[in-house]
Write a structure and sequence with these properties.
Two copies of one chain form a homodimer. By secondary structure, chain A is of the alpha+beta class. Chain A folds into three domains: about 20-65 and about 150-240, Probable tRNA modification gtpase trme, domain 1 (Gyrase A, domain 2, 2-Layer Sandwich); about 65-145, Alpha-Beta Plaits; about 290-369, Beta Barrel (Elongation Factor Tu (Ef-tu), domain 3), CATH 2.40.30.110. Chain A is about 20% helix and about 35% strand. Chain A is built from eight helices and 22 strands. A six-stranded mixed sheet of chain A has the order 13-14-15-12-4-16, sandwiched between helices. A six-stranded antiparallel β-barrel of chain A has the order 17-20-19-18-21-22. A five-stranded antiparallel sheet of chain A has the order 6-9-10-5-11. In chain A, strand 7 and strand 8 (about 105) form a beta hairpin. In chain A, about 55% of the residues are buried. Chains A and B meet through strand 1, strand 2 and helix 4 of A and strand 1, strand 2 and helix 4 of B. Strand 1 of chain A pairs parallel with strand 2 (about 30) of chain B, so a sheet runs across the interface.
Chain lengths: ~375, ~375
């Protein structure tokens, strides 16, 4: 079969923007944190070109928030991640790999500090809420943990500043990367963060209250008509070019942050109290034996990767590709995979076993964009 | 838009049977525990009629197993559920509501006791693994918790005994309801349990090792040709008629087991050590103020429920419908919902706000089948 249909029920939750998304040109969805996430509007390639030139509004409500409140909130947050949060201030939103006791990735959320005793953890596709609730119960921490009615809406693309400034005011231009400001919309203050799952720049607006969803969506589209604003979504091609990892695709509980190339977000020595510290201190010293790399896969356009493609070097298995797409801008199949250290140097030639046959490929230390 | 397409990636995991399912007449999927779950083959109605008369093979690999091993396994299992597991024996598989510290449902798995210090928890759609790992870490329990390579394959329908007997031997007929036997297939022993997500009878075979998936699938189809065996899946209509609840659809973390009509699976007084015991002891005494009911909704066939339909009685909000489908056998729209005690008596007339307008409906204490 080719692309299957998706059965939608209450369990694949709607978002505050679903009616607007459905009324537009949406073609396909995935399910992410038990919620609908659009994946294609015009076509993956049309969306890609438009994203790199204009501005898009993305329903990323599926980046659910876990709110952690209470006297032990700061202690718990540091338990969750090997990133040192000792000097984290309000107004910051930090990318925080979160691991289990063996150092295996459980999620790679963005953590927002809202107050000394209040955080939001904006999660990738796993029920991190359950891990946090389990820890809190087991350790008798004085915190409340819950999923509030907060739905991020991303504004991405080179014209994002212009669009968001028209709705939230010129001060949005001063928001630094991975910082947020509290800005008013219809009399309520929303977190407006300079962040997002693309390399094209932009913002994520944490819509605090479902009732604000459609008014904000409509305000953005009304304000951006001359900017050719369109509904969009995380773009498969662009995110692979940018080597933006996807939890569940490019990394799982099998992998340490170091394998995922996220070592720079780990200050395990300083992150006293973090779960998995013993395991990660060792990995930090010895280094991983395999690591995330970008690859270019030769030949014509492949069917996008929907599983694991084995990678071979000198006839031996040396890794796997977990995401791939045809890149119009680079005129090759771009890919993300985990490669053993024997073959991870820049420019190494390997072979990838794809559903369309064996293909030669080149390993890249850096991302494409 | 009508039914959207589903984008399939590694994150929406394939199963050992996906190639076989795709090679058949599958029409649609959902994503369940980050894994593909087929939802329609011929049509929901065709599948329904066939299930009630013949036998189907269902890829329910998405019922992932959580394996709990170690000296504290028994203690932990009792912590997870208000069902009294004190007398649970090997060979049993028990339906076990699992709750958080407030008594809110986290999952409604089937728990299998494989040995005194080894259990499988066969989960509905939430990362219960994360809850168990968090508890185990916080409480420093001596257990290992993991997701093994075990994928259930369900054989459901009135001819299930005949089909399974042809592949696993006549002794399958002696397996009692919610019991299992270890039976050989290709030299390995598999859990064969009399259970499944339909009221038509049948088995779930816990395929322990992905390599056995296609051989077992093929053996069942070869053995059942004259029984008109077909690929199938949990059927929306049949499961609503049978009032088989779906976690995420009919109940969430908001609900206690008592609200879900699962009070008979709670022996909270005896379940010493279970998380949420304090909260549930109170609920057990006072009873819930709303509870799961079946409903029949008048008029012609409605679009199946994909969200929450408010229920009104005497002009006031008295509940919600969370699942519905047109039943050919009962010639009405069958539904499942949560109804306040003022209106939950058998035969009470209420109104349901559907996308196709307000409809009269009747509340039923018992399920249809």
């Amino acid at each position: 079969m080719s692309v299957p249909l998706l059965s939608v029920t209450r369990r694949t939750r709607r978002t505050p923007f679903t009616d607007r998304v459905n009324a537009s040109s949406v073609k396909a969805y995935t399910v992410y944190n038990h919620m609908l996430l659009p994946t294609v509007f015009g076509s993956v390639e049309d969306d890609y070109h438009h994203l790199k030139r204009n501005v898009q509004v993305w329903d990323v409500s599926c980046e659910r928030q876990i709110e952690i409140r209470g006297p032990d909130a700061g202690r718990l947050i540091q338990m969750l991640t090997p990133r040192d949060l000792g000097s984290m201030t309000m107004g910051q939103c930090l990318y925080t790999p979160m691991v289990d006791e063996t150092g295996g990735m459980l999620n790679d959320p963005v953590t927002l500090k809202l107050a000394e005793d209040r955080y939001w953890v904006s999660v990738a596709d796993s029920d991190l809420l359950f891990w946090i609730k389990g820890l809190a119960y087991g350790l008798r921490l004085e915190i409340d943990v819950d999923e509030p009615d907060v739905s991020p809406l991303a504004i991405q693309g080179p014209k994002a500043d212009d669009l968001v400034a028209r709705v939230f005011g010129e001060e949005v231009r001063d928001i630094r990367f991975f910082r947020y400001a509290m800005l008013p919309f219809e009399g309520r203050h929303l977190v407006v963060a300079r962040s997002g799952y693309s390399k094209q720049g932009g913002f994520e607006i944490y819509v605090d209250g479902s009732d604000l969803g459609e008014p904000l969506w409509d305000a953005l589209f009304a304000a951006g008509e001359d900017l050719d604003v369109r509904p969009g979504c995380p773009n498969l091609i662009e995110r692979i070019e940018a080597r933006l990892l996807s939890y569940g695709n490019d990394m799982t509980r099998e992998n340490t942050p170091h394998e995922c190339g996220l070592g720079r977000f780990c200050q395990t020595q300083q992150a006293i109290g973090c779960v998995g510290r013993d395991a990660l201190l060792r990995v930090a010293v010895e280094g991983p034996v395999r690591q995330i790399r970008s690859l270019s896969i030769n030949g014509d356009a492949l069917t996008p990767c929907s599983g694991i493609w084995p990678v071979f070097g000198g006839g031996k298995r040396v890794g796997r590709v977990t995401s791939s797409a045809w890149s119009p801008d680079f005129n090759t199949n771009v890919a993300i995979g985990m490669i053993r250290m024997t073959h991870w140097d820049d420019g190494t030639t390997v072979e990838v076993e794809t559903p369309d046959g064996m293909r030669n490929a080149t390993v890249h230390e850096e991302s494409y964009i």
